[in-house]
Amino acid sequence: MSIEHTVTPERIAETETLIRPHIRRTPVMRVDMRDFGGAPLPVDLKLELLQHSGSFKARGAFTNLLTRNVPAAGVVAASGGNHGAAVAYAAMRLGVPAHIFVPSVASQAKIDLIRSYGAELVVGGDRYNDALAASQTYVATSGAIAAHAYDQVETLLGQGTLGKEIEDDLPEMTTLLVAVGGGGLIGGIASWFRGRVKIVAVESDGAPTLYEAFKAGHPMDAPAGGIAADSLAPKQVGELMFPVAQKFLQPPVLVTDDEILAAQKALWSGARIVAEPGGAAAFAALLSGKYVPGPDERVCVLVCGSNTTAVKFG
């Protein structure tokens, strides 16, 4: 059955009801681009970085654990950091053992967070796909279930609940900017809206997975580097989400490391928001002028992750 028939608005709404007791309804902040040195433009920021475990990933994590039979061996996840932290958090809350595999590019902030939730953590390999391979070996020998970071129906359903929440909060929104890594977030959100709003995909030019997939007509290996490599740099975009992307999205806007860093700094200086590089990438498209909204657009930017040590308090 195609993804359009499995990740439907009806199933996303059912999922939202199921996981609602376990997740936060994150706030929306209205800002003006003048706050960041730009021309006057009202923008809504959906602050999903305030979600449990510091990113939107908690939605997919709870969906995986609440809709599947979890064996005594528990759950396994491979992650650049945020998905692993979310699965570890959900497992802790639900009393499930968790084994998390992360690559060496995972930030210390994310490694420390995963450990704080009591999960068994394995660091190995240089990139996400190395951690994924190690996790698959563990699944085969342990009997645990795998919770995929982005290429799984349950994950897409969970992330899609964020689309519903944004629409409930901002019914007049016309344009939503979303960062892309493996595509689980934007795939779930696009499955909710189904073309009713304009969704602008934003990728790091160091990890243009969806951009390259659009060029090729199918998911394919892409570079996996850049400042946001621990959250936006799988080798390929997800197979499941790609048909949804082809139907409802345009090729992504690409932003540079410098533009992402500038967006991080601007969010802090202009709005006192501490976002990790991947969490600030969508805002970078707007701040840099890589995406220029039309005069009638009502813009929302999804700020999706906060697991960073960028701010130190003394």
UniProtKB/TrEMBL annotation:
Record-linked InterPro entries: Ser/Thr_Dehydratase, Ser/Thr_deHydtase_PyrdxlP-BS, TrpB-like_PALP, TrpB-like_PALP_sf
Gene3D superfamilies, per database record: 3.40.50.1100
Cofactors demanded by this protein: pyridoxal 5'-phosphate
Pfam family, one: PALP
GO molecular function, one term: L-serine ammonia-lyase activity
Coiled coil ranges: none
GO terms of biological process kind: isoleucine biosynthetic process; L-serine catabolic process; L-threonine catabolic process
Record key words, sorted: Lyase, Pyridoxal phosphate
Positions of the Tryptophan synthase beta chain-like PALP domain: 19-305
Family: Belongs to the serine/threonine dehydratase family.
NCBIfam families cross-referenced by the UniProt entry: PRK08246.1 (NF006094)
Identification of the protein by name: Threonine ammonia-lyase
